[in-house]
Amino acid sequence: KVQATIANANFVIETAAQHGSFGKFLASWPAHDQIGLMEHFKKHASHLGPSATAYFLRFNGWDAFILSPDVARALIREKIVGKAPTSKADMKAVQAAFNAWTTESGLPRRDVSRILGHEQGRLERQSRSELVQRSSKDPTIRLKDTHIRGQRYSPIHWFKELSNAQGIENRKVL
Question: Rounded to the nearest 10 degrees, what angle do helices 34-44 and 50-59 cross at?
Fold first, then answer.
């Protein structure tokens, strides 16, 4: 870990020297290409996986989405990916979805990411609560019945509600 910390400090110093500052480097990277920036970090930094890179970007002011377990499950629920995204094709699909939702909602990627994660957690808690209520009435209910039932909320539904509450004009995705 010490060696990786030294290597990453050198990466930041070298990048800053090439671009005037590390902040200028981050600011010059297109906001719609987080996956490309993460690939750059993978090639030039040391021991920074996708999660660590996304958190590093967010903590340094870059508008990054975080692929938390709840966000990954939300992406599966929305049929963006079939499983937790790891392949290049999955990551491209994730980037395209975040770009579309950001454009439509007018919200930053970090907020879209947070909404997805919180909403997925809420739906799962609701589903578990419904299961407990049903299982107390019917002891034959098993864990396989825990899938989310009832109304399906898409991220766009929540973005629109939040945008309307904040007075943000909704834009149509091209």
Answer: 110
